[in-house]
């Protein structure tokens, strides 16, 4: 890629016990075709070798109390500790597939001045379950797209799809909308997507920018994860002018069922249906979080610290 100038890009990686992933991730980032201006690791009191690995690669290392971590607030604080024109957010367990990740993310800004953020394609690891592979391939296909607020009628809730597992933001656009909302339960990326789109910006999905990233969650983990997503959507319903986000989930299930039936993967088909049902139950419960006591919510959430702070703030 021939660039008229070298863009200044800071990478921000929130971590917690990242030892199994961080060495490979930092190695890949140091070998990118577009050199990063800096790499900032923001750690939540890991008790493994996260800090020593980060310092081995001469990255900037900042630490915060685990109790103070917030999906939006922590990332905002990290951005304030950088000065580059672009900010690359990465999850600790997202591994670039090659040395063109940053280059391919940045390409979206070269061709369209309305783009505020681009994000990467996620491919499941070979060891992932069939259901997880189907989910990743559905959500992250092999073709690019660019969404604007005008696409809501066509794509519904999918218009606001954005993942900070691997995303590249223009600092100007990021600061214009005030950064991420904070405190926030989950999906800080989806909410800032709404803010950016409503201001006239566009969001680019770059299928050539690839990271390996997947999780084989248990049924309990899936329920909790989707409870939080449902609660998030209920809390911020005014940000997403769509009729019903459940329809997108049904499309994914139908796509997976057809794929597995064609290959006679009956066990995987049963797993897909079971996990989809549990996700639905979690999502619906989250939408109705106001019907639950704090004690009941704490049994259902992945982020008890958020809910404790949330109820404490509302009681005062």
Characteristic key phrases:
single chain; 316 residues; alpha/beta; Spore Coat Polysaccharide Biosynthesis Protein SpsA, Chain A; 9-stranded mixed sheet; 13 helices; 9 strands
CATH class of the largest domain: Alpha Beta
Q: Tell me, rounded to a whole number, the average pLDDT.
A: 93
How many separate domains?
Answer: 2
Please give the count of helices. Answer: 13
CATH topology call of the largest domain: Spore Coat Polysaccharide Biosynthesis Protein SpsA, Chain A
Structural class, by secondary structure, is alpha/beta
Uncertain parts = none
The name of the CATH superfamily of the largest domain reads Spore Coat Polysaccharide Biosynthesis Protein SpsA, Chain A
Task: Give the distance, in angstroms, between the N- and C-terminal Cα atoms.
Answer: 55 Å
Q: What is the CATH architecture annotation of the largest domain?
A: Alpha-Beta Complex
Sheet with most strands? 9 strands, mixed
Mind explaining what this structure looks like?
- This protein is an alpha/beta fold and 316 residues long.
- The chain has two domains: 9-129 and 139-212, Spore Coat Polysaccharide Biosynthesis Protein SpsA, Chain A (Alpha-Beta Complex), CATH 3.90.550.10; 219-311, no CATH class.
- It is built from 13 helices and nine strands.
- It has helices at 19-30, 50-56, 73-80, 101-111, 130-139, 152-155, 171-176, 188-198, 219-235, 246-262, 266-287, 294-298, 304-315; strands at 9-15, 38-43, 60-63, 86-90, 95-96, 115-123, 145-147, 166-170, 202-212.
- Strands 1, 2, 3, 4, 5, 6, 7, 8 and 9 form a nine-stranded mixed β-sheet that branches.
- Helix 9 packs parallel to helix 11 and helix 10 (246-262) runs antiparallel to helix 11.
- The termini are far apart.
- The model has no long low-confidence stretch (mean pLDDT 93).
